[in-house]
Amino acid sequence: MFLLGLVSTFVILSLPARENSIDKQTRLITESIANYRQSAIISGQVIGLRFEGDGYQVMSWLDGGWRPRSGKATLFDGLTVTANSDISENQPVIANWPQIVFDPTGVAVDQTLIVTGGEADFEVLITATGEVSVDAL
Predict the structure, then answer these.
(1) Is 9 domain-assigned?
(2) Is 11 within the bounds of a domain?
(3) Domain that holds residue 88
């Protein structure tokens, strides 16, 4: 009986922690951003992501302006994403301009996204080289 209890404890401790909804959504957002960077490189197009309200819009720079690439992706209920860019005070903020922009070489402007939800908060970092990472807050 002792041996059965010991084995059961080992099995339970060996199981991976369950991913909650904000963990999952943050991982999906991070993977999507990295995939859109690769898409910009492969397609040779400038691709942007604009976060607003309950989701985000993927856009392409075509004919001198930003055009939607697909329908708006919706975030999980209760989840918000806010963008904090390192744009200097001398640069005007252009209406409807994406917060994240990847050029055809994969380069981006440094950007921090704050993902907030009921269970935890995360920081998604996009570097000038286009690398995407996530940290818990």
Answers:
(1) no
(2) no
(3) 18-136
- Tens digit of pLDDT for each residue in 58-91? 999 999 999 999 888 888 777 888 887 555 444 4
Q: Is residue 12 part of a domain?
A: no
Is 1 within a domain? no
Residue type, 114: I
For 44, 58, 63, 100, 133, the CA distances from 39, given in Å and listed in that order, are 8, 11, 19, 14, 18
How many other C-beta atoms lie within 10 A of the C-beta of residue 80?
A: 13
CATH code at position 81: 3.55.40.10
Contact of 89 with 120, CB cutoff 8 Å: no
List helix spans (H) across 15-130: 21-43
- How many structural domains comprise the chain? 1
- Angle, CA of 37, 129 and 25, to the nearest 5°: 50
- Rounded CA-CA distance 77/84 in Å is 22
Do residues 53 and 84 touch, judged by C-beta distance below 8 A?
A: no
The model's pTM = 0.76
CA–CA dist 114, 124 (Å, integer): 6
